[in-house]
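Attaching the record inline, Q. Sequence:
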Amino acid sequence: MPSNTRENGFETLIVNSLVDEAHYEQGVTTEYNKDYAVDESRLFCFLQDTQLDKLAELRILESGLEKDRFFKQLDKKLKSDGVIELLRKGMRYKHLKLDLFYVRPSAENPEAAALYEKNIFSVTRQLQYSKFNPRLALDVCIFLNGLPIITMELKNQLTKQNYKDAIKQYKDDRSPAELLFAFKRCIVHFAVDDSEVWMCTELKGDKSWFLPFNMGFHDGAGNPPNPNGIKTDYLWKHILRKDTLSNIIENYAQVIEEVDEDTGAKTYKQVFPRYHQLSVVTSLLADAKHDGVGGRYLIQHSAGSGKSNSIAWLAHQLVTLKGPDGKEIFD
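Structure, as predicted:
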């Protein structure tokens, strides 16, 4: 069978990998609620499977009016707190708290393990997201329990387009006025081709700032040759795996408040770890877990590559790191 070298062939490759290998569910665009930017079907499937008694007590599914009231509160919280905060802390609705994501369990907690397995990771291709223009469609959107967390625009260099065209598409065609692309509504937006991956955490039209999310090659930019496939397949074969993505949500992704020293004005910045930051923190945690305390390391980061965040993420996780005996390694 000849290879599909068109853009939709690249899209099929990624989606099939997530569904067949990472065990995602595959969504369809008709399950997407454009009014509130959620996969309504999977959101309620998750809540019914995990918190059916709360749903009944809150009467959310009792009528269209009750459901709309719930969606309005969810929308309000997503706008104010953002999807990262809601996934981590849940949402209070009326007098009860609803969990929207279950974190990875510790080894000795089978109950938490069972809840974690109930999380629904799903992927929808050609998502028709716009209330205003039904012809607009996003290449790929990833949802967690019905909440959108990642978008992707894909380009295939065999069609003479690359990640720069995907970035341009985000800047020109993916308006932050659309609910899906509003600040804090998704965790990250990826511009992807078969050689490079770039990322952005806040879409602002022409002012959208994309950073490389590449592995690096020969102490430089880009990605190494992949003898087993496409250079960028680490994105969907590793980063978007359920356990890796859960780890990022729990320990890395965040919204940071910044205060101007002169005016006192507050601004907010959403942070998603770059590939080299994940790599260095994961490597050091694994080394400390295996060898214990006292090791010395030289970590080389270029200027502006996020050293402070790498240090903070590492320190935060070293505090709770446990050795093979189950005891904390660091005092």
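The radius of gyration is 21 Å. The longest helix spans residues 64-80.

More tomorrow.
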